[in-house]
Specification:
Layout: E1 8-11, H1 16-32, E2 36-41, H2 42-46, H3 55-81, E3 85-90, H4 94-104, E4 109-113, H5 129-135, E5 140-143, E6 154-159, H6 169-179, E7 182-190, H7 195-213, E8 218-226, H8 229-239, E9 244-249, H9 263-270, E10 275-279
Parallel strand pairs: 1-2, 1-4, 2-3, 4-5, 6-7, 6-9, 7-8, 9-10
Antiparallel strand pairs: 5-10
Length: about 280
């Protein structure tokens, strides 16, 4: 399948803490001919209001000013980039606001800028990116605050021994074809994997290679066995100067979920480049 994304949702706060995500989203909307949704979560905005006389009036005035600024930004994006741009606000907590807005408008992708040292109002300071990946009904693309990425021409596509590892191809193929990407199919095996896991990975790589080839995607293949697969994936992406990692996001379950970071968290947290997380169902 190579259909483009449905609408794209980006949480914004009018600062550099969301600037790279917004620029990436605009570029993707233009390539995939889809609409952009900007979401401002007012929980952070309200934290700045003093608790003395006139708070209600200040809140109302701030809300009106916020709506005006958000609408002006949406109209500016439409005029400058020729895409449909909608704007929304929410009083919910950050995680709930993003998830509900994505569901309400049937968005096909959430773009979220990771935490950085770019100011007090960091969009994800109280809700981890992993929580967004865990609960979202659509894929999540994480963007780093330090680096602007507009196109994805050099992509790392890790393949792990998961039966559903190629589910992410439905999401990946439109990106790879629109960007004319070069792809490294990176077989990522843990030292604890058994021979049948290696056989499964080889089969998955062959299937992915076939599907990409018929879409005229330039492919390379490489295998790595390590006691820290997430580290190897990120290191390989950095080594090859990749501008996107596309992972099958696995979700922690059970009591141990509170006490360790899994592969998905480790890649998201440590990657200095965008990571597209497609949840394994």
């Amino acid at each position: 399948m190579t259909q483009s994304f449905k609408d794209i949702l980006i949480p914004v706060n009018f600062s550099e803490s969301s600037g790279n995500a917004e620029r990436t989203g605009i570029a993707m909307c233009k390539r995939h001919q889809t609409a952009l949704h900007l979401l401002y979560v007012k929980e952070d905005h309200n934290l700045l209001l003093p608790g003395n006389t006139g708070v209600v009036e200040m809140t109302l005035a701030a809300t009106v000013a916020l709506q005006d600024e958000l609408e002006a930004r949406a109209r500016q994006i439409e005029n400058e980039h020729g895409i449909d741009c909608y704007f929304h606000t929410s009083d919910e907590d950050f995680l709930t606001a993003v998830l509900e807005t994505a569901d309400d408008f049937r968005c096909g992708l959430i773009i979220l800028q990771k935490s950085g040292n770019t100011g007090f109002l960091n969009l994800a300071r109280r809700n981890s990116v992993y929580s967004m990946v865990k609960h979202a009904a659509c894929p999540v693309l994480t963007i780093c605050p330090e680096k602007e990425v507009i196109t994805f021409t050099n992509v790392l596509f890790p393949v792990r021994p998961l039966v559903a590892a190629l589910d992410k191809l439905d999401v990946a193929l439109p990106i790879l074809t629109k960007n004319k990407s070069k792809v490294l199919l990176f077989s990522a095996l843990d030292t604890r994997n058994v021979p049948s896991d290696a056989e499964l990975v080889n089969e998955l790589v062959d299937r992915a290679s076939f599907k990409m080839s018929i879409n005229d995607i330039d492919i390379e293949k490489e295998m790595k066995v390590s006691d820290n697969v997430a580290r190897e994936v990120v290191n390989k992406a950095v080594e090859r100067n990749a501008d996107l990692i596309i992972i099958s996001a696995t979700i922690k379950k059970g009591l141990t979920a509170r006490f360790y970071r899994n592969y998905t968290e480790k890649v998201i947290d440590s990657s200095p480049i965008p990571v597209l997380c497609v949840k394994v169902q």
